[in-house]
Amino acid sequence: MANLIQLVPQAVSSGCGVFDYARRLAEGLAEAGWDTQWRAARTDAEHAELRARPDRVARDLQGEAVVMHLVPSAWRHVDPRWSYVLNDVVHASERTVLIVHEMFATRSRAWLNPGNWRDRETVYALASLADHVITTNASFAQRLARHGRRDVVILPVPSNIGEPPLPLPDWAERQPVGVVFGGSWRRQRVYEALDRSGDLATLRIEGLLDIGPGPEAMPKFVRGIPVQRFGLLEADEVRARLLASRWGLIAEDVPFLAKSGVFAAYAACGVTPIVYSQRGRDADGLRAGAHFVPAGALPRVPEMIGARLRRWYEGHSIARHVEAVAERLRPGR
Question: Are residues 117 and 233 in the same domain?
């Protein structure tokens, strides 16, 4: 097998979608003949042997094939030197496939942070140097094109909780409940939006399933509708609850849905997403009313939306990601 280095900002047992994705990618690449070794800026105790030193990593990866996972703020928060060392890694490697998961923090308050602007410059510099660039959405690709990188491959993120085989349960087999899944901050945004809206009554949602860290901070009821708080669950448990539910709720701007692991999980499981977005209606092949329900809307045929969304998802399943990366790792590409 050929050797490959995957360079990730953190390697931890749970709570890191990028590392989860990288591990799924490694499983697929192994079948394609690539043996993955790991380097990470930050690790937990279980993965301590994977930790890389910023003052040595470029030398250690001299002449290697590298898949670099870029979330610039995550690298910078571990050690500011990483923002510059990653350039040295690209120069030292035999070839680099850069996967841009994030260009800048998307929370509103982050725009006030000078580090947000430095992160963009890190992305533009690395994109200009890498042999190949993959990103998750058209918004990022357009920004990279304006800075000279016009051959970027766009692949929305795959589901990190697995991809249930077809056929999926149909609408009548699912319960009239909604799943609120993901990190604490975004789940709180969903509950705040629900509290201001009449969506629960309009869509006849009879219960909410809360899945993610910090369940004790989430409400027990929203507008009289009970919230079952599960906390963190294993992937198969999350998948089972999504397959048994009609709705998935998410607070994310439409131009960034394609980079959301939560939205990918909803798509893979064929639930109908309700999207609380500050801007945008259509992006990355997703159309309001066809692939998701905008907040405050009453869909005509909600039972068709989840199935249509799953068909959209098939174009960038984990198998498609493996194919794209393996093709670009080939010598001479």
Answer: no
